[in-house]
């Protein structure tokens, strides 16, 4: 097949990890006779520097025409004044909204070779296999904001339709997994959470084969630590998802290798590692590219329907995790290029 | 000294743990010649059953006249429909607001005898000694809410004055500890967080002896797991504090023994264990009363200026943790009364 992929390297280590992911995609294309065309565009801090805008119109246009978008990371100390009018993160929020990618999938598993890196005791990690489905285009992230000298407000808003579509996505995904959905809210305090809970409960009736459980966000922050293996699909609103997925990433002990896929109704998906721009190590060629490479695998699966190729990349990454080389963040010494080459070499071993 | 303490046993295990805490306070009073007068009032589900209101006027009146308020827990399956008009949690939110207790202090330490209960590896727990200062009377908990058939909203609002007072409290507390404050917000997305951050930064200048660090809430959810010993005082807004303190409680592995103190400008403080009403074990006499007993110690320290007596209770609890008996939640077999008696007996050992 032919596919057009827009890359948004962004800031910090973004360009480095994206280079590696593109190289892996090219190696896969070569091996399986596909043809991927890549087009790089600006987003975030580098876009602000070049154009004054965190999401230039040309970037958005290219993304809308593409089959999929692969993003590195945005932000860095150069643009980090939270009071500034124009900030790199605005580019990220704007592209999510413009592409309508309301469901952010963050799968979490702990590779046996990495269990020792987790702050959690090993027995807690056994069988951890969670798929977070974070609502990505609603809530306080996109609500009305006000600011005076004396006060500020953020409005968190959810419509029933917004909750329905992300809930359906979560239940569809649960059907192909262990048939269990945990919906997280703060229904004892928030009105949006009460709407969330009643909508999720109603949609769940369409999926009698899937079990639904509700948890309050504060309890869930605990349960992720005490019973992480209990969860299958976890669906929640934007801000709670932001917090809980980072907590979950930390418990896996391996932030650098976690991918994400953001999906909407259309076919254009947005794929990005969940790590940030890591300005402290940018430009040194030592960033772990596995989060970006696994995001590229999700891209193949969800936007291009290339499930076999996606699984091949995931198996190659598993092979590298089992046999090395390892990057510094997971206790090794290998640089970005070395990991990239090892994954590409492993494509043949696992095929 | 003479003091009037209103007790609000509430629901579930609330009455059981509060009985134990009151017995310890009475034992302390006897030993040190103080006289504490206790008056029990209704709150939460039991108040709804008796009066139709989660916070009856008589309760509020008694609390306002008291020197301090000791609360058990509210809520339970009987009143758990989140769509109900009247809910037990409303009583809790209403009493916090009515008493103006804007600073919720949640100290977290891991007793060596309990390190094995934590989901975290032991080396991560060494030297964990964090004091959370959660803003308790603002934010989305108390903002305007709307609900139609199609949509719902919650407004998160903070005034500069609200942020200033809780920030000052955090810095004052840090002065008596390790002179380090971590302020947690989501300033890359929320307007209230940008107001929070600029206000905290400005107030910090009044405390040149205390170091200030800002963290985003998602990063903080990670850092609590990976570097828990790094934090001294952590100050944050209401909802972030709800989530992060529960995460922190879970990492300590011992929810049943964590206390909290909610303080305002006046002298009346509200003291409560951070555990909930635990309906599954209510009425069996097996709840761990140490969270309530340690909350009583905070009451002595913060509302009655009885620091020596507070420290004596804390030492007695430490003695029981070191030597047993232990309740079921921490791997023992002792019931509530046995733990209560052991703490009271230990008051003499540690005095
Ligand atoms: C950079 C920031 C705006 C973003 C978010 O909060 O969504 C990030 O934390 C994430 O989770 O992708
Ligand atoms: C019961 C609930 C309303 C409450 C809160 O969210 O504040 C509780 O979780 C707490 O932390 O004290």
UniProtKB/TrEMBL annotation, chains A, B:
Per UniProt, Mg(2+) binds at: 218, 242, 246
Recorded catalytic activity of this chain's protein: (2R,3S)-3-isopropylmalate + NAD(+) = 4-methyl-2-oxopentanoate + CO2 + NADH
Q: Which GO terms describe its molecular function?
A: 3-isopropylmalate dehydrogenase activity; magnesium ion binding; NAD binding
Q: What processes in GO biological process is this protein linked to?
A: L-leucine biosynthetic process
Site location (Important for catalysis):
141, 186
Under the cellular component aspect of Gene Ontology, which terms does the record hold? Answer: cytosol
Required co-factors: Mg(2+); Mn(2+)
**Domain Isopropylmalate dehydrogenase-like residues, every copy:** 4-343
Alphabetical keyword list: Amino-acid biosynthesis, Branched-chain amino acid biosynthesis, Cytoplasm, Leucine biosynthesis, Magnesium, Manganese, Metal-binding, NAD, Oxidoreductase
As recorded in UniProt, its EC number(s) are 1.1.1.85
Cofactor stoichiometry and binding?
A: Binds 1 Mg(2+) or Mn(2+) ion per subunit.
Please state the protein's primary subcellular location: cytoplasm
Query: What InterPro entries does the record tag this protein with?
Result: IsoCit/isopropylmalate_DH_CS, IsoPropMal-DH-like_dom, Isopropylmalate_DH
Annotated residues for binding of substrate: 96, 106, 134, 218
Q: Which Pfam families match?
A: Iso_dh
Q: In which pathway does it act?
A: Amino-acid biosynthesis; L-leucine biosynthesis; L-leucine from 3-methyl-2-oxobutanoate: step 3/4
What domain of life is recorded for the organism?
A: Bacteria
Purpose: Catalyzes the oxidation of 3-carboxy-2-hydroxy-4-methylpentanoate (3-isopropylmalate) to 3-carboxy-4-methyl-2-oxopentanoate. The product decarboxylates to 4-methyl-2 oxopentanoate.
Return the NCBIfam families for the record. leuB
Report the sequence similarity comment from the record. Answer: Belongs to the isocitrate and isopropylmalate dehydrogenases family. LeuB type 1 subfamily.
Q: What is this protein called?
A: 3-isopropylmalate dehydrogenase
Q: Please report the organism this UniProt entry assigns to the protein.
A: Dyella choica
Q: What is the lineage of its organism?
A: Bacteria, Pseudomonadati, Pseudomonadota, Gammaproteobacteria, Lysobacterales
């Amino acid at each position: 097949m032919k596919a057009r992929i827009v890359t948004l390297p962004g800031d910090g280590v973004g360009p480095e990890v994206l280079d590696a992911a593109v190289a892996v995609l090219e190696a896969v294309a070569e091996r399986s006779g596909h043809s991927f065309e890549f087009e790089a565009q600006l987003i975030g801090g580098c876009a602000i520097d070049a154009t004054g805008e965190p999401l230039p119109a040309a970037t958005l246009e290219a993304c809308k025409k593409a089959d999929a978008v692969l993003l590195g990371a945005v932000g860095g100390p150069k643009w980090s004044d939270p009071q500034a009018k124009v900030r790199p993160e605005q580019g990220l929020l704007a592209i999510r909204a413009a592409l309508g990618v309301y469901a952010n999938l963050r799968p979490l598993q702990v590779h046996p070779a990495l269990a020792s890196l987790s702050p959690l005791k090993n027995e807690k990690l056994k069988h951890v296999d969670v798929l977070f489905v974070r609502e990505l285009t609603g809530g306080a992230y996109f609500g009305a904001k006000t600011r005076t000298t004396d006060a500020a407000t953020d409005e968190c808003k959810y419509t029933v339709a917004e909750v329905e579509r992300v809930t359906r996505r979560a239940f569809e995904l649960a059907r192909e997994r262990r048939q269990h959905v945990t919906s997280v809210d703060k229904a004892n305090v928030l009105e949006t959470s009460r709407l969330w809970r009643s909508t999720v409960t109603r949609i769940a009736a369409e999926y009698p084969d899937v079990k639904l459980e509700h948890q309050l966000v504060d309890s869930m922050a605990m349960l992720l630590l005490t019973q992480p293996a209990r969860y299958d699909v976890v669906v929640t609103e934007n801000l709670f998802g932001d917090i809980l997925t980072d907590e979950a990433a930390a418990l896996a002990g391996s932030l650098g290798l976690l991918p994400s896929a953001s999906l909407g109704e259309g076919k254009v998906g947005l794929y990005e590692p969940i790590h940030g721009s890591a300005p402290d190590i940018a430009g040194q060629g030592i960033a772990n590219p596995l989060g970006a490479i696994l995001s590229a695998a999700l891209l193949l699966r969800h936007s291009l329907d290339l499930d076999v190729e996606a699984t091949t990349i995931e198996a190659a990454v598993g092979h590298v995790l089992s046999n090395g080389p390892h990057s510094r963040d997971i206790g090794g010494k290998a640089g970005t290029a070395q990991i990239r080459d090892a994954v590409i070499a492993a494509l043949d071993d696992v095929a």
